[in-house]
Amino acid sequence: MGRIKAVNPRLTSAVGCSLFFAYILSFLFEGQVLHSLLGSFFLETSAYLLSAMAAHLFGLFSCGYFVKSLGAVRYVMVVSMGLCLLATLPFFFGPSPFWIIGLTVSGYASGCVVASFGSLLKAFTPKHERLKTCADILIYSNVFMIATNVVAVNISPLIGLVLSLICVLLAMLFIWALPVQTMKEAGKARPFKSRRISISKPLFLLTLFVLIITINSGLMYRVINPAFEHLTSLVSWYWAVPYIAALMVMGNLPARFKHSMALYVGMAMIMAAFISFMLLARNASDYLIVDTLMLGACGIFDLFWWSILGEMLDYTDSPVRIFGLGLAANVLGVLAGDVLGRQIVSLQFSYAEVTVIALTIVSVSVALLPVLNRHLAMLLKSHAYLAVYESMSKPQQTAVVVQSATLEPLTVREQEILEVLLDGKSNRQIAEELFISENTVKTHIRNIYAKYDVSSRAELISTVLKGHVGASS
Known about the structure:
The protein is an all-alpha fold. It has helices at 9-28, 32-40, 46-62, 70-88, 97-124, 130-154, 157-176, 180-187, 200-227, 232-238, 241-251, 259-279, 284-312, 319-346, 351-390, 394-403, 412-422, 427-434, 438-452, 457-472. The chain has 3 domains: 1-189, Growth Hormone, Chain: A; 199-390, Up-down Bundle (Growth Hormone, Chain: A); 392-472, Winged helix-like DNA-binding domain superfamily/Winged helix DNA-binding domain (Arc Repressor Mutant, subunit A). 78% of the residues lie in helices and 0% in strands. Helix 1 (9-28) runs parallel beside helix 6, helix 6 packs antiparallel against helix 11 and helix 12 packs antiparallel against helix 15. It is globular. The termini are far apart.
């Protein structure tokens, strides 16, 4: 395979991933290529889709534990794409055990590709461009998917399969074209001291939010979509159009706009979608209303957590693991919604009961969102404050600690511990530097929290440094 000179690593990686994601969308997950192939042989789709999604989930979750360097990312992505290519070839022949084996292999390999993209996003896309880059990738992958779906539904599933594999081949070319030297230089860049601020709590809250809200996506696949399956031609091209439109709007909002506000709009749209589904009939105009509301909301949600994960990459030395874990929550939520949807169908729930379930899920998400926003905002502020603190001289840093307002004065030992804590040291490193036990450090830190009336390191950093950041700027 010849090398293509990469003019722009950010653009090259984004195009490559857009093409590969189009393969995932059109073939692996609820794609019309796979549905049309299975339908042509009158095969039940459930076992095939479950195998692919479960394997994809495992790939997202596990990839970050063995892909730890930027240098390895390019090779892992190209090899994984090649596995997807080979594992999809059996679908050009009649049904066989190789179909479900192929979906399992390509599901896992595609999960590795998606997780690995987190490393490319961190290395090649400046922080202020990540929202736009994520929006572009999601938009173009869905455009390619629509074109492939239309061909699979209206012309031939096999031609649609060929188009999806062409996307994989082109994606391999673009990722292979990433310049090795540029990747080595990016990999040698000074890493962020991730131990300064723990992202565990914000990441947990984000993944919990994603998991809960995407349960409705699983319900959509299992309950709403089958109700409109008689509108095959319309669904093949319109299904993702509202999703793309929402991404275009979100990706071009002014920087000062609070994207969390758009989430409330998205939640209102989901509620309206299920209520409309309950009240309306099943003709084309009803489909346009329900799909526009539902898929528009999905576009808002997807770009939100993709962009938040993109920002979190600056706080970790393991971008593949963080990105994979974040998107694994998305897949797990869809799987959970799919299982819930199957139960609803088997128990023959009414559309009103389905709507109540969906609205309950949205209500839980609404309750979780303010907590999530608070922790994410604290994380971002703490990073900005630490950057200023790091640029200060040692006497200036000491003065910051001494002058900060507390409920009770800090002891000399507490001041020492706070200064070392602000320098990015863990409890064990603080203990080693000050020649005290780790338990003693923990006790002093609890006392420091109480004197500043805070409950976490991020909150402590914000409280101690915020006045000095304002003065420095």
